[in-house]
Q: What sequence folds into this?
């Protein structure tokens, strides 16, 4: 997965494209677009991907534009986490450390 800074930039870019597209279609007013931006910008200061995605999730209830972007990137993040966890479990099983592999599978390690 990309580093957190690149991840945020990708989301920011995709959200900007969503805003432009919805404004061109007249499904988003300038005033609502400005409000969306004002609420979105503070999320970029989050220090972890989990808190960033959590804040986006909360905003997605009020803004379809954020919801569309959030769903795309939240799924990518979850897929990455699952893949990393499976790879770690596989390595631990190969090393015959079954207990540790089970803990990783449960998200405890």
A:
């Amino acid at each position: 997965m990309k580093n957190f800074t690149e991840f945020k930039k990708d989301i920011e870019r995709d959200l900007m494209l969503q805003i432009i597209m919805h404004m061109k279609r007249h499904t988003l007013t300038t005033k609502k677009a400005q409000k969306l931006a004002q609420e979105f910008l503070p999320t970029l200061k989050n220090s972890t991907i989990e808190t960033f995605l959590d804040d986006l999730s909360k905003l997605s209830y009020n803004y379809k534009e954020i919801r569309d972007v959030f769903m795309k990137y939240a799924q990518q993040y979850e897929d990455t986490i699952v893949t990393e966890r499976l790879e770690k479990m596989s390595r631990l099983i190969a090393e015959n450390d079954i207990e540790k592999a089970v803990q990783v599978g449960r998200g405890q390690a």
